[in-house]
Amino acid sequence: MSSVIVCPQCHQGNELGRIFCSRCGTKLDMTRMTRGNLGRSFDLPVFLRGAMRVVVCLVLLVLLLLLVWPTGLAGQRSGADEVTALLGQRQALAHAVQDKQAIKLEVSESALNAYLAATLKSAHSNEEAVSAWMLRLDELQVALRPEVVTVTARSQWGPLEITCELSGAPKVADGRFAVEAKSGRIGHLGLPRAGADWMAARMAVLFNRWSADRELLDQLAGVTTDTRTLVLATKGASP
């Protein structure tokens, strides 16, 4: 093998002494000498750049597929009977708050989900959901576990079904009900902590749709969760 000069334009190998490339006529860079046969030489940097482009495209494709691959909705849901029972509990809770009575109420996961489903059927709820999420909200369900609530929202975006999921700890602090984010995902794509916090903020905007319920939750002494149960505690009168 002899030394050749590689053309910076077409990567043709040229014999020593040439000033311009024998193939494309580009002026040769005398510093691009390598060992090899005359003809097209193997340019490692160019090969690596091409390989990196392929890898990046594959990674982006996988992320996109995970993003639009919907998950199932969390939690159980029942029928209208439990919705009626939940409305009765809600009224008792409101009276306890107004009269400053200390009570605890347990709301089942299935009744809560049935209530959310019934409310979302109204056109008004979806108008506000569109402004909050930039897409129409079709379903919203929660799953309750000890100290953890998981909220799943499903929306239709053209032909695609998008699901968003947030898990966190419910709490009432400084007269405000919130869910302290622990994890979140869109489709099957897990989000970093900053992404989960962003989703928690969007969920907070979404729950403002249930303004009367939100105001009631803000006045409670505490909100905790158990297996498929939400426990609501009111404040008693100061001694």
Spell out the key features of this protein.
239 residues, alpha+beta, 2 domains, 5-stranded antiparallel sheet, 4-stranded antiparallel sheet, 6 helices, 12 strands
Description:
With 239 residues, the chain is of the alpha+beta class. The chain has two domains: 2-68, no CATH class; 80-233, no CATH class. The protein contains six helices and twelve strands. The protein has helices at 44-68, 80-99, 109-120, 123-133, 193-207, 211-218, and strands at 2-6, 12-15, 33-36, 39-40, 104-108, 136-145, 148-157, 160-173, 176-186, 189-190, 222-226, 229-233. Strands 6-7-8-9-10 form a five-stranded antiparallel beta sheet. It has a four-stranded antiparallel beta sheet with strand order 3-1-2-4, with no helix packed on it. A hairpin with a 2-residue loop joins strand 9 (176-186) and strand 10 (189-190). Helix 2 crosses helix 3. The longest helix has 25 residues, at 44-68. The relative contact order is 0.13. Mean pLDDT is 81; it is low at 37-42 and 129-134.
Structural class: alpha+beta
Radius of gyration: 30 Å
Strand order of the largest sheet: 6-7-8-9-10
The end-to-end distance, rounded to whole angstroms, is 98 Å
Strand % is 25-35%
Mean pLDDT rating: 81
* Model regions low in confidence, pLDDT < 50 over at least 5 residues: 37-42, 129-134
Spatial shape: rod-shaped
The H/E string reads EEEEHHEHHEEEEEHHEE
Strand segment tally: 12
Number of helices: 6
Largest sheet: 5 strands, antiparallel
The portion of residues assigned to helices is 25-40%
